[in-house]
Design a protein that fits this description.
Structural class: mainly alpha
Distance between the termini: 13 Å
Radius of gyration: 14 Å
Number of strands: 0
Length: 134
Amino acid sequence: MPEIVDFLNHGAASISPAVVEKMLRALPQWKLEYTQIYEPLFPHLGHQLEFLANAVEDSAEGAYKELPYYATAQATFALIYAHKRVGIIPDSVLNLGRADDSSVVRAALIQNEKAFAIYAASQDQDWSKITSQP
C-alpha cells in the first residue's frame, strides 16, 4: 500500500482552495452517486465516500474548522479520484474496478484517522462504523 499512499500524497499536493470550491458544486450529485455504489468486494466504499464528502463540505464551508487542511486535501483528492471512471483500474473492470478507489479512500482515512475520528465524534457518528476496511 505504500505506492497508494505516495499516489494520494502526490495528488493531495495539487489540491488548492479553488479545486475544493469547484468540487463542492458537484458534491450534492456525487453524494447521490455514493448511495448507489454496490460493490460486494468493497462493501464500505459508499459509506466511506459519504463520510469524506461530509467532512470536506463541513470543513470548506466553515461548519467544522478543526479538520487539518492536509486531511481536507487528501479527502478531496480521494473523492475526485473515486468519481473518475478511469483510474489506475478503470471502473468498468469486473470485480476490480473499484479496488483502486477503495485503496485511495482507505489511505486517506488511515493517514488522517485521528482527525477524522474527532470529526466523526463532533457529528455524533461512531468512528468504528466508518472503518478503514475495504
